[in-house]
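Aim 2 progress update. The chain analyzed this quarter is reproduced below.
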Amino acid sequence: MSLIGLLGFGLTVLLVVVLLHGYLWWRLVRSTTRPGRVRRRLTVLLVVLAVLPVLVDVLRGRLPVGAGVLDWAGYTWLGLAFYLFLATLATEPVRVLVRLVQRRRRPEPVDVPLPASAAVEPVSARSGPGRLDEPAPPGPGAAPAGGAVRLDHQVPDPSRRLFLARTLAVGAGAIAVGTAGTGVVLANSAPVVRRVPIRIPRLDPALAGLRIVTFSDGHLSSTYGGRRFERVVETVNAQRPDVVAIVGDLVDGEVSELREDVAPLADLVSDQGVYFVTGNHEYFVDTGQWLRHLSTLGVDVLRNERVPIGRGGATVDLAGIDDRTAAASGLPGHGADLDAALDGRDDAVPVVLMAHQPVQVEQARAAGVDLQLSGHTHGGQLWPFDYAVLLDQPVVEGWSTQGDTQLYVTAGAGYWGPPMRVGARPEVTVIELQPGPVTAPPR
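Predicted structure tokens:
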């Protein structure tokens, strides 16, 4: 990513963090406390929590020890703060409704007649500026003409408002903690296995049942790796793959930081190879060093090229292209080039394309690709982000048809940012190719 792009992204994240925590302060601190020591302490705590995710990025790679703990704390709070925001926002209609009801129930001001023995305070006894013969200005409780006192009941009860704010804050907090906690458990659990039979009209019957086991978005980092990634590799091997297809965003760090975490890739067992294509996050680090290191683990990187996958004399082309952000990285020779990947191939042979981002299916459809395998979306990762994903990608997860091209988007194995998954479990997908007309796979 270019320097300008990084600065723009950083400023956007900073603005979001400030607005998010500003709203949380207004609803969870200012509205639930009276001015004083408690409010000041809670304000300081919220400021520290707001700064924590920013520190994670600023200090990345600069701490010899404790980096993982800082990352966990910062990103976990960011996820919890997001659900606190949603839960608190959802209580706004309740707060407004209660206020309207209270306002309607307040009695109107009434004039209460004064008894005959009650006298209006003499002008001469009045203190303050003005002449003694000047009438006193009317004020609360002043006796109007006719000898009556007006009782005004429009002053709100601050204790009721405080009680309502605290009740809604406790409810929102419980919902947010429950949601975020469940998300942490699911994100760090074993991946589910989805079996997806896909029919390709031009597929030779000799290739029926060919299993392509695919996963994406491992995002190996200081908060994800170790035993959790070993489980992903074990799950892949348990499916007895003919081909393993890793469709990008494998790492979020340098080789020196993640060498041990990525080592389980060397244990992958596949009849016809393990293949990888770059995602956008491979271009946030030393891309060339990673691509060279993957080759030492038995992983073949497909960069705008294809390989034949055969059985019984029949073949299917497995092609792979760089991520769509590769050209902007400034690295010589990097950039998605589907024409180069498909150049010179036999049009009668079906082609399966590995491309990190689902939106790259636009090129695949124009080139007559039979099936594209993608990741990138994480299935939304944190509901309701799946709706935002659709602003940039044609599909969030699962199988779809894009013209004559079939597209499968896996929900990913790891996570990025908050160590949570809400509404999108980690996934390893078994694509089983079958000959025949295109039909939607059974759910």
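Residues 122-133 have pLDDT under 50 and may be disordered. Residues 3-94+158-185 form one domain. These observations will guide the mutagenesis experiments scheduled for the next reporting period.
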